[in-house]
Amino acid sequence: MKNIERLKEIAAKIRKELFITVYKGGGGHIGGALSSVEIMTALYFGNILKYDSTHPDNADRDRFILSKGHSSTLLYTVLANAGFITRDELRTYGKPDTRLGGHPKINDVPGIEATTGALGHGICFATGIALAGKIDKKNRRTYVLLGDGECQEGSVWEAALFAAHQKLGNLTAIVDYNKLQAMDRLDNIVKLDSLADKWKSFGWDVAETPGHDIEKLLDALDVNRPFDGAPRVVIAHTIKGKGISFMENQPLWHYRLPDMEELKIVMAELEISNEELS
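RE: above sequence
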């Protein structure tokens, strides 16, 4: 039985720890990380992703790739809560000699399956991993989280064509569809009208869902889907900067730290104490 209230509490905790990590680390892509919190909570703590943090290299584990690698602080926060790294190490983000870089790097941190950051590449890695699993007849799944601005990259659609042709039912892509990218709204840069229809036309099974509704996310991710057949894409409608009132739906907060007055608002809204920021 799904414990949605427990998952909501985990999401709130992750959102709080994520902000503290970014603030104490001196910077990070805060807006897009905040928009993906419920997605990552559903994956890691909602019995979707199959993993064992004490044996991160288990060959039968599911794979997760953060294609929108600039949201690395969210991934590190989730990995700390899932037991892959300690909270003490999480606090090393942004410090000299840390393993936790501005973008995830494979082999440096347990639980990271691909080096990402150059947008449009993560889904290519994920497609190859899913194909290898199918060839090896493994009952494991591969999940990849993309940004919506990332879907302007041609390599995304090359991978989408290939995955559908190979009938990679073991592959699930999630699009964090917050309608903003680094400098502006998507519609002012390259429109992605009818995003669901685009993926359908490439042969994917499409689910659309509110991206901050954990119960609906769990239904859309559906671990009971057949391993052979159309790959699935979950288009998650989200809010960039979700959870911090003045950041929501504001392109300014792609990468920025709050000033002292803004910080007071964040601390009140996320229930952060002075001691936790010291």
